Amino acid sequence: NKPTTASNEHIRPNVGQAATNGRVTLWEQWGDHNNGNNWIQVDLEEIITVKQLKIYTFWDNYRYYQYTVEGSVDGKNWTTLVDFSKNTKLATIYGEAHDIEPVDVRYLKLNMLYNSANPGLHVVEFSAD
Fold first, then answer.
1. How far apart, in whole angstroms, are the C-alpha atoms of residue 15 and residue 32?
2. Best CA proximity match to 29, nearest among 129, 128, 116, 110
3. Residues 6 or more apart whose Cβ sits within 8 Å of residue 63
4. Above 90 in pLDDT, residue 1?
5. Measuring CA to CA, which residue among 96, 65, 67, 60 is closest to residue 82?
6. Residue 10: band (very low, low, confident or very high) from pLDDT cuts 50, 70, 90
7. Where are the beta strands (DSSP E) in the chain?
8. pLDDT exceeds cutoff 70 at 53
9. Per-residue pLDDT averaged across 65-85, rounded?
10. pLDDT of res. 14
């Protein structure tokens, strides 16, 4: 429930909010067709220490997603926190928890890279602890 922007907001305003609303349901999600530059960016509104990122993608027991997550304190200089770009593990209702070294960030950016089932990209929920 933090301010969220997405790469496709010029087409669908506020579409990124569905991925950070705290609800894990397939019917509320951010989505886009893969064009090589698909992302969701969250402003945590203050610098906080993050030690885990959790991503829920669309699940149906036969697709997997690939993505990276970056963090920044200023929204300009980014550090890769999660590299899931070679993933082939199927997406499940449990999402994917990524434990990371504690890092201070204000901004998080989820870069969606690939869906094994079709050109669509789907993020049900994106959260940080």
1. 10
2. 110
3. 90, 91, 115, 116, 117
4. no
5. 67
6. confident
7. 4-6, 30-33, 38-57, 65-72, 79-84, 96-115, 120-128
8. yes
9. 98
10. 73
Give the Cα separation of 17 and 1 in Å (integer): 7
Helix or strand (DSSP H, E) at 76:
none
Average pLDDT over residues 69-94: 98
Q: Checking DSSP bridges between strand 4-6 and strand 38-57, what pairing results, if any?
A: antiparallel
Sign of CA dihedral 99, 105, 106, 109: negative
- Per-residue pLDDT, averaged over 114-126, amounts to 97
Dig out the tokens for 50 from the structure.
């993050």
Contacts of 58 (CB under 8 A, 6+ apart): 26, 29, 65, 91, 115, 122, 124
Spatial contact of 43 and 36, defined as CB atoms under 8 Å apart: no
Give CA–CA dist 73/53, Å, rounded.
16
